[in-house]
Structure formats: C-alpha cells, structure tokens
Design goal:
about 475 residues, GMP Synthetase, Chain A, domain 3, Helicase, Ruva Protein, domain 3, 4 domains, 3-stranded mixed sheet, 21 helices
Length: about 475
C-alpha cells in the first residue's frame, strides 16, 4: 500500500469508527483493506467469509465515509479476498494490455485524474477550503492570518504558527491555504506534510542514502505547510534537518505555515533554536468553538452534503451536547445520520436523543463544568504568586515545585487529560513525573491540613468537581 492510499484509508477508518460502536467496528470494519484508487473508485478488500454481509450491512456507511474523505462522486467497490486474487490472476494471464488490467486502468486514470492523485500531498484535501470553514470568536485570528498568507505568501506572517487542541480546524486551515494558493497561483510549488511524515521520509532517506533528493523535495518549494510539528520533539536528527530546512526556506523568502497542539513556548522538548524561530512570526491560537459556531458548523455540513433534515432541533441538540471539538461534533452528526439510515427511521429529535444519550449523556443540573489544564495552571499561579513560565520551568525550589505538583494533581483529578498530555502542559515532562507529583500531593493532603485546605480552595475557585476514572463528576467527600 503506498503512503497516499494508507493516509486516505486512515481517514476513512476514523470516519467509520465514529459511525458504529467499537465492537462492531473491530469485528466487521477494521479488517477491511484498501487495494487501489483508480479513476473515481476506491477498491476495498474484505475477508471472504464476511464480504457479502459487510457489503449488505455497511455498504452505505462505507461509501459515505469514503465520500466524506475524498469528496462526492467517488465510488466504492467491496470485493472478497478470493475474488481479488482471481481478478489479479486473470489480468496477469491476459497480459498487461488486456482491458481492465491494472496498468491499463491506471492509464485511464491518468487521463481523468482521481479524487486523490497517487503522488499528492496527503495533507491537502480539496474539500477543505476557506469557503467551508466556519468563522467564530475561537478561530477568527487564525482564519484571518491563514487567508492573508494564502493571498500574499511570504509578505505578511512568516512563519505563521497555528496552535490549539486536536480536532478544532488547524488541518482545515492548512488545506485551505494550499487549495487557494494552487487555484490562483498554479505555478507555485506548495508542499504539504505532517511532522510524522517529514520524520519518516527523512529517516527513509538516511537509510537509503537519498538525503539530497529529500532536501530537494522540501527546500525547492515556494510554500511549506507542516501539520502537527510537535511530532518533531525528542528526534534530534530530524529536528536538525528541519532546522536547516526552515532556515533555507525562510532566508530565501519562502512561506512557512506550521501547526501544533501547543504554542511554541510549551514545546519544551524541542530545541531552543527551533522554538525561537517558530515564535518569530505570528502565533495564532485556536480554541474549541462556542455554541453559536458549533451550530453554524453543523448547518453548513448539512447544507454541503445535502442531508435531508425535517427537524432543526436535531442540530441544536448535537451542538449543545458535543462541546469538545469540531471533529467530535461532525462525528456525532455522522453517527446520528448513519443510525437513522441503518435502522430505517426518520431522523427526528427522538432518534438523535437515542444516539447521543449513549455517546454524550446530558450532565445533571448540579454538575458544574470541568475545567481545563490552562484554567488550573492560571488559578495555581494566582494563588501562589507565580508566573506561567515559573510554573512550567525546571526550577526545583519548593516555592515552585510544590505548586507545580499540586497543579498536576488537580489536572489529573479534574480533567480527562492523559498523564503524557498533562506532562506536556507542564514544560514537556513525561508521565512518570506527573505520577510522582500526584502521589506526593495525595500524601500531603492526607497528612497536612494546610495542603488539603489549599486544594479544596482551588477546587472551589475552579468551580469543578473531581472525575471518576470513567469521567463522571462527583463531589469530594466531606
């Protein structure tokens, strides 16, 4: 499987995983494998003994997920392993010039480009444009900056660094920049990649002795767009190569746009010289959308995909329940639509409630909002008279280390963030450091009345309840 097809299939799988429950996905859909993308058809291989059932039961869902990834008009062909082997044998026996042979079909595809060309940059998605991006208070600056860069590359913000949590539109903005640039300036060379792809390609070039070709690929461009640049952390050789790539492009007046799940100052495991360059341009923060923006996103999605909807309250319900990010929001919409289609029931408010009550149960009226790690850090700094930089610094003085451990403990208790994610919020520390901080703080709470009162005070100020391991809020015992 080539890299582009693998990337396409990973996105299709992500859509499928949102539509059905985990056991169903694991049993019926996870074993599917993409074979090839020829003309406007994605050929998918299924285990022989489940192919017919999968086609009948999930054919519409698979097709919808492929269209969401590649655009409308793309077809899907689901075949069994044995049928695929018979086709391959027949084509080989007939020779390379026989009708339907894969080489012949590729020649046809070359005359009529497929939805995703084999050598296209995996980050660029023709469906993700500025027209499809919904602007709100949470993303207004990032959108305006991205549009300016697309209209005047290397004349305004260079580099442009867009940061924020996953699923809130960073990749959409990168793809929008690429699409607008190539529409109005087709002579430009625009390279789209991810931090992971850059790393893998560089390591492959090192192994195969193709570093010169690698450098040409990434340095002989007019615009370089890199998604999830935080992936470069703790990869010394790749960081060094990216540093030189960055300098080569920036010094010659070429545009760079980068995204990350954190601002440059919080990429503590990245070399200082790279962080400094990332901060030298414009850093635009993107946050989770508010209710008005979430509702606008859903309405635009329904309009764009021509989804029949008889009750607008369905969108109101989804927008109210799903608050974390755009990806989860659209996933809830897809799953609700799929449930309606698979069960043959009209998409009503009752159907939406049935789906969402299992995914996003409504909080009780006595439950207060769970706070973010940023809220916890801010409250801790205010209480102890620290700056943010001091709190996440490497200082081991009691004045700083004790509040830092306390804040890590609260982040663990009051949020759904994983231990590694919490560590990244506190200067790029690893999960073992967070575990140690939680144990130390728990021991202090048990042994020291002053510490316990301090923790309770912070919890009251944050207006949040502790969470159980399953994410259910509950009160602290008195």
């Amino acid at each position: 499987m080539n890299q582009e097809l693998a990337h396409i299939w990973s996105r299709v799988q992500a859509q499928l995983a949102l539509v059905v429950d985990e056991p169903t996905y694991r049993i019926w859909l996870e074993p599917l494998r993409p074979v090839e993308l020829l003309e406007h058809t994605l050929v998918i291989e299924a285990p022989e003994h489940t192919c017919r059932w999968t086609k009948e039961r999930f054919g519409n869902v698979i097709h919808a997920s492929v269209e969401l990834t590649l655009g409308t008009g793309v077809k899907t062909e689901l075949i069994g392993v044995q049928e695929r082997a018979r086709q391959a044998h027949a084509q080989t026996a007939a020779g390379p010039d026989a009708p339907g042979h894969s080489r012949g079909r590729r020649q046809t595809a070359a005359q009529h480009p497929p939805a995703a060309p084999e050598h296209a940059d995996p980050l660029r998605n023709p469906r993700l444009t500025f027209d499809q991006f919904v602007i709100g208070d949470s993303n207004r600056l990032a959108h305006a900056a991205a549009l300016t860069v697309a209209e005047m590359p290397a004349h305004a913000y260079n580099p442009l660094f867009i940061c924020g949590p996953p699923g809130i539109g960073k990749t959409h903005l990168l793809s929008s920049i690429a699409n607008l640039l190539l529409t109005h300036n087709p002579e430009l060379t625009v390279r789209c990649t991810t931090g992971e792809s850059f790393t893998n390609e560089f390591l492959g070039a090192l192994t195969q002795g193709h570093t010169d070709a690698f450098k040409l690929r990434f340095r002989d461009v007019d615009v370089l767009l890199v998604d999830d640049v935080q992936f470069l952390e703790r990869k010394a050789r790749t960081e060094e190569e990216f540093f030189h790539t960055f300098n080569a492009l920036h010094d010659s007046g070429r545009q760079l746009v980068l995204t990350s799940d954190r601002p440059p100052r919080d990429l503590q495991d990245l070399e200082d010289r790279l962080r400094e360059r990332f901060q030298a341009g414009l850093v635009a923060d993107v946050q989770a959308p508010d209710l008005t923006t979430r509702l606008a996103i859903l309405r635009k999605r329904v309009q764009h995909d021509d989804i029949p909807l008889s009750d607008e309250r369905v969108l109101d319900l989804i927008a109210e329940r799903v608050q974390s990010n755009v990806r989860a929001l659209e996933g809830a919409l897809i799953r609700t639509i799929a449930f309606s289609s698979l069960t043959g029931r009209e998409l009503t408010l009752d159907v939406a409630l049935e789906v969402l009550d299992g995914l996003y149960p409504q909080a009780s009226s006595t439950t207060r909002a769970t706070r973010t790690v940023a809220d916890i850090k801010s409250a801790t700094c205010q209480l102890f008279g620290l700056t943010h930089d001091e709190l996440v610094s490497s200082s081991r003085s009691t004045r700083v280390s004790m509040p830092r451990q306390l804040a890590m403990y609260l982040a663990r208790e009051l949020t759904d963030e994983s231990l590694p994610a919490i560590g990244r919020h506190f200067g790029g520390r690893d999960h073992t450091t967070v575990m140690h901080a939680c144990r130390r703080t728990s021991a202090r709470i048990e042994a020291d009345t002053s510490t316990r009162q301090t923790v309770e005070k912070l919890e009251r100020e944050l207006g949040a309840h502790k969470r159980t391991p399953h994410g259910t809020p509950h009160d602290r015992p008195s």
